[in-house]
Design brief:
Length: 273
């Protein structure tokens, strides 16, 4: 039977991020993908002028009621960018609309490069932490991990002991598996570290010389789809990193607002079991 995943994050109508990435990527993995938009934006918030923003929090309770009346259940939940007042509504949906054994995947989208994204106040990490508690899989970058733990971000000059202590601290907030992204011990490498409560593993790719918007969404969406197709924690984490690299390499110069992940979908489907 085909599994059904609900992804909860914003729709940035232009910009190759959030739901415009998650829906095609997870669908390409052969997973039925339902969506719950947290907000609608004209574009993403990095580099575009005068973007519009519509918070859809008031719709969530009504959508939940409709799903309950129709007996709709989900085998997995994957959250990305959510608004500050949506933590309780999302937790309620995860409780009432979960199929038996449903998996929770949380990408705590809120920060990068040492600072919070626009629209999030200093109290948001504590709210996001409530969504992370009890998650089956947590996928923060280094900045988000630090804020979830109430720490100042450290983005360079760290060692394996630092990373592994952070993985254990994230696990201790009540997470079953942690995937920490953006890890680097060598200038020419970039990778991820995974922890399942027993073993810490690493996966690295050559560091590419470009920085692109939307790669975190490509990563988390690929991870979610691969995981539901039966890949292990490390296998899904490694495949997701490879598809991000494929997407970046397929993106022409001057395409500044996102990556051409669409061109990497054939490689993704080829590598799934």
């Amino acid at each position: 039977m085909t599994k059904r995943l609900l992804t909860i994050q914003d729709i940035s109508c232009v910009g190759q991020c959030s739901l415009t990435v998650a829906l095609p990527v997870i669908s390409a993995c052969g997973i039925e993908t339902a969506i719950l938009p947290s907000a609608v934006l004209s574009t993403h918030t990095a580099g575009f002028k005068n973007y519009t923003f519509c918070d859809l929090t008031p719709e969530m309770e009504k959508i939940q009621k409709s799903w309950e009346e129709n007996g709709i259940k989900f085998d997995a939940f994957y959250t990305g960018y959510v608004c500050p007042d949506q933590i309780d509504p999302i937790l309620n949906i995860m409780k009432s609309c979960a199929a038996e054994g449903a998996v929770r995947i949380v990408d705590p989208v809120m920060a990068d490069n040492g600072k919070m994204y626009p629209g999030f106040g200093p109290d948001f990490p504590a709210k996001m932490r409530r969504l992370c508690e009890g998650a089956d899989y947590l996928l923060p970058n280094l900045t988000e991990a630090a804020f979830l733990l109430g720490r100042e971000p450290v983005l360079e000059g760290y060692d394996r002991a630092f990373v592994e202590e952070m993985l254990r601290a994230l696990y201790d907030i009540g997470v079953k598996n942690v995937v920490l992204t953006g890890i680097s011990f060598e200038p020419d490498q970039l990778g991820v570290a995974t922890y399942d409560g027993k073993e810490i593993c690493y996966d690295f790719n050559p560091r590419l010389k470009v920085s692109s918007h939307g790669t975190g969404d490509v990563y988390a969406s690929t991870f979610a789809g691969a995981l539901l197709r039966g890949l292990s924690l490390l296998e899904a984490a490694a495949l997701a990193a490879d598809i991000v690299c494929e997407s970046i390499n397929a993106t022409p110069d001057g395409h500044w607002y996102g990556v051409c992940f669409e061109r990497a979908l054939p490689e993704l489907t080829k590598r799934l079991p």
